[in-house]
């Protein structure tokens, strides 16, 4: 079985997503941005989702990771 690891930042708007993406591209620390802005419980771990296999995440995310 293939396994993956990922980190993410969950926000409530595309505008906020793009704002944070720009900050990260300009050198901001991903984990710190996740801790400050993400609404997912994974924010406590810098957005780290840990290790997971196919079918364990929502279909859209699963497809992006395992394709």
Description:
With 67 residues, the chain is of the alpha+beta class. The chain has a domain at 12-47. Helix content is 42%, strand content 13%. The protein has 3 helices and 2 strands. The two termini are 14 Å apart. The mean pLDDT is 96.
Major sheet description: 2 strands, antiparallel
- Per DSSP, the total helix count is 3
Classify the secondary structure makeup into a structural class.
alpha+beta
Rg from C-alpha positions? 13 Å
Strand content: 5-15%
Order of the strands making up the biggest sheet: 1-2
The string of secondary-structure elements, in order, is EHHEH
Q: What proportion of the residues is helical, as a percent range?
A: 40-55%
Q: What is the approximate shape?
A: globular
**Mean residue pLDDT:** 96
The overall strand count is 2
How far apart the termini lie comes to: 14 Å
Low-confidence stretches: none
Q: Topology of this structure?
A:
Blueprint: E1 4-7, H1 14-25, H2 30-37, E2 48-52, H3 59-66
Antiparallel strand pairs: 1-2
Could you provide a short overview of the structure?
The chain is of the alpha+beta class and 67 residues long. The chain has helices spanning 14-25, 30-37, 59-66, and strands at 4-7, 48-52.
